[in-house]
Design brief:
Distance between the termini: 72 Å
Organism: Suicoccus acidiformans
Protein name: HTH-like domain-containing protein
Order of helices and strands: HHHHHHH
Helix content: 55-70%
Structural class: mainly alpha
Largest sheet: none
Mean pLDDT: 85
Strand content: under 5%
Number of strands: 0
Radius of gyration: 22 Å
Pfam family, one: HTH_21
Length: 120
């Protein structure tokens, strides 16, 4: 259990801590109250994250659509992706598209400005 406690200290978010507690509960023969008391983690926070894991993702279809557009057009940023989604008939907010693109890490990496040499 000592190795898992060190893993808990290294994590920052409550979700990560709840995941480690869930792993401890699955692997070792400790009760939940013993684990929570040893770590000093609230039971309500642990149960909250368990409920969050069971929820379905409402943006799953949108994420799949964005990934499909990125596969067809790898140089499209979130603005062009948003325009393409509008053309496909999906009424979606630009900010939501931007947030999902950030979550997916689908940023354009090979974009360069055109440069022409100028001599006077």
């Amino acid at each position: 259990m000592l190795g898992n406690v060190k893993e808990l200290e290294a994590t920052e978010s409550n979700e990560d801590k709840a995941r480690v507690i869930h792993k401890l509960r699955q692997q070792e023969k400790y009760t939940l109250t013993e684990i929570l008391a040893a770590i000093g983690f609230p039971k309500s926070t642990y149960t909250y994250w368990q409920a969050q894991w069971k929820k379905t993702n409402p943006d799953k279809e949108l994420k799949d659509e964005i990934l499909e557009i990125r596969k067809e057009h790898p140089n499209y940023g979130y603005r062009r992706i948003h325009a393409t989604l509008l053309k496909r008939g999906m009424e979606i907010n630009r900010k939501k598209v931007h947030r999902i693109c950030k979550e997916l890490g689908s940023q354009v990496k090979n974009f360069g400005r055109k440069y022409r040499k100028y001599s006077s």
